[in-house]
Amino acid sequence: MPNLRTFIAIELDKNLKDNLTRLEKDLRERLSPRSIRWVRADGIHLTLKFLGDTPSEKVQAVEAALAEAAAEVGPFSFSVGHLGCFPNLRRPRVVWVGLSEPTGLLARLRNAVEAHVAPLGFPTERRAFEPHLTLGRVQRYASRSEIREIGEAVETATVGTIGEMTATVVSYIKSDLRPSGAVYTTLFEARLVGG
Q1: What burial class does residue 137 get, using C-beta atoms within 10 Å of its C-beta: 0-12 exposed, 13-18 middle, 19+ buried?
Q2: Annotated catalytic residue: which of 8, 24, 45, 69?
Q3: Which of 10, 63, 108, 188 would staple 46 via disulfide (CB 3.0–4.6 Å)?
Q4: Is pTM, for the whole model, over 0.90?
């Protein structure tokens, strides 16, 4: 059986996805249509761990590891707000919207996921965890003026709180890359039951 492309994430509720769709629409109207490849709102997730190529024989072990991680953290709420770019506003490659979760439970969940999947051969992420939702990726062929325009649009956008939600479940998701965009299939869900 072939490898699967997988990741672990919190799936967003309909209200938050609708609000993200409106935000994307506002940004699209301000930018060149060819400069950014936008992520469809139904494809936006709060990614905790990208596993990448996953041998099919490891899927059950990842599911068990995810269940163990979810047992360590209870439900928590977060809000979605400010815009930003990776790596920065002067050289934007990714346009994102940030999250605020003041209790630390989101970071604790991410750390638990990392700790439980590492023994399965998925190296621990060395970069600091910056929770965000990716809205779009700057196209490789975007001109310098288009890139500058993206950074300026993000910097000057007035974005309050876009939405809030309570996370009660963490999902193990398969991603199939297609010419029309990625298709996501939830393989497993684990309830956040710790506390």
Answers
A1: middle
A2: 45
A3: 10
A4: yes
